[in-house]
Write a structure and sequence with these properties.
Blueprint lengths: L5 H16 L14 H6 L6 H16 L3 H14 L2 H14 L3 H21 L14 H11 L4 H23 L4 H24 L10 H10 L10
Helix pairs in contact: 1-8, 3-8, 3-9, 4-5, 4-7, 4-8, 6-7, 8-9
Length: 230
């Protein structure tokens, strides 16, 4: 029987990551804006420059302090088969979601990913899956299962986040596709920097600092007309 070379194993891991972050992954991520639609409606973000500034802030004060370092910890916990630590960080993440919509987004995407993995025969042992597993928790499991290196896991996650946010802007701001590519060019090195910072954070440094996004998300719950669920 043929066995994959080291290079081929790395290629398989990369392909597994690409599958996980693809917009075609059927978990419904396109339906959520993570508070961005509210920022448009409230007049906080009106153009390309303001959108770029918003994304920089969310990346620096949100992802680099919360989702990214949490992914590292969860991926290591999955590798160790440590159900208690997986549950601890899953609960911690739920506690950091300041609004019903943000909490619902993480829970629903996590449940959708669990359903997909079940249909693909890729779920971990039931005893390792926490109650109400969030999207970040299950994302970390797939990255571990696919043997994706931690750094690449974080790079892939930030890329998926940026693509989703720009897709939201193209539908709701509206933002032209060329403008979206200009923002992508600007943000690419910032994504790498955010990953570098996240990899160095200690536990006591974790937690998002996004009061504006939290306020916008809360107001979005009663927004009269909207395209997205958050």
């Amino acid at each position: 029987m043929l066995t994959p070379t080291n290079a081929a194993s790395g290629d398989l891991a990369l392909l597994g990551l690409m599958q996980l972050v693809s917009p075609a992954l059927p978990i419904g991520a396109f339906a959520w804006s993570q508070g961005l639609e509210s920022a448009f409606e409230l007049g906080w973000v009106n153009n390309e420059a303001e959108l770029q500034e918003w994304l920089e802030g969310v990346l620096e004060d949100g992802l680099s302090r919360c989702e990214l370092p949490l992914l590292v910890r969860l991926q290591r916990a999955w590798a160790a088969g440590d159900a208690d630590t997986i549950a601890q960080w899953n609960d911690w993440l739920h506690a950091t979601r300041e609004t019903a919509e943000l909490s619902d987004e993480d829970t629903r995407l996590g449940a959708a990913l669990v359903t997909l993995l079940r249909n693909l025969g890729l779920l971990p042992e039931a005893k390792l899956i926490p109650d109400e597993p969030g999207y970040i928790t299950m994302f970390a499991w797939v990255a571990h299962y696919r043997k994706v290196p931690e750094r690449q896991t974080l790079i892939g996650f930030t890329w998926a986040w940026l693509e989703n946010q720009l897709a939201v802007a193209c539908k709701a701001l509206p933002l032209g596709h060329t403008a979206a590519q200009r923002i992508t060019e600007h943000m690419r090195p910032l994504l790498v920097t955010a990953v570098e910072i996240a990899l160095q954070r200690d536990d006591e440094e974790l937690g998002p600092i996004l009061p504006g996004l939290a306020l916008g998300s809360a107001l979005h719950e009663t927004q009269y007309s909207r395209l997205f669920r958050s």
